[in-house]
Write a structure and sequence with these properties.
single chain
Length: about 130
Amino acid sequence: MVAAAGLAVDVAVHARLADQYDAVKATVSEGTLFRAEAAAASLAVLLVLLWRHRIGDAFAWLVAIAGLAALLLYRYVDVGAHGPLPNMYEPIWSTDKTTAAWAQTAAAGALTPLLLWSRLRRHTPA
């Protein structure tokens, strides 16, 4: 439930902010990337709640970790624009960014033991 709640908060933050970031663009706008994050996190919520399988948990973990990694990277490093991606550097901690970071951390933290336990259970002789 913690993983699903964290991912749901991630969905809410990214979906709500997407329109505000449509102007930041190269080939792809930052708003489009926010919508993609919200869509991936939405799917992850459904998988975690409705399909109790390590593949769903792994997908959800990757969504949480990738979102958190991108958030931290573009908070602390001015990567610039690369290929179709815009320059998303934003060296501030807003309430929304902090909320998303905590939510993604909580989701990844809740999913990590599930993935490890699943792996250990598969390799333990009966």
